[in-house]
């Protein structure tokens, strides 16, 4: 893969900020050679259903047609604020790769325990509509990938190209950005929205 090819990584940080209502989403444009090109921030509601729109808005504000892939850290930021990967792929016109870092039995039981009625049904429908995960080993560490817009071999090659340690670099940088901003908000050094 070309060392200058860019990917946008989106990762979340939430540490119980006083307002309790929003989670910080960091976005980082990173080249395959690990050079960082750009940043963006947004928020989504904890326990809400606006994460997909927040990520699409972040993409639009960045206005980076040179970005070839979108990476997201998991599919349920901000306490089951589920991402619609198909909608993100349509909004960005790019392949979307959701990466998780641990094996799990899935989110259905957690959703069932946390929500009732229409909220439960909507989240379960959204979760069940996601593409299946496949397991990938990079540097002897397992990653779990859901892909929209790339078949499994191509998705694996893209994830491997951007992973220099345990996390794909766009997600590592986005997570660090979100954590720093979230900590500054929590400590009162940045105003909450």
UniProtKB/TrEMBL annotation:
One Pfam family hit: Endo_dU
Top-level taxonomic group: Archaea
InterPro entries (UniProt xref): Endo_dU (IPR002802)
Signal peptide feature range: none
HAMAP family attached to this UniProt entry: UPF0215
Family to which this protein belongs: Belongs to the UPF0215 family.
Protein name: UPF0215 protein DM868_04940
Organism, scientific name: Natronomonas salsuginis
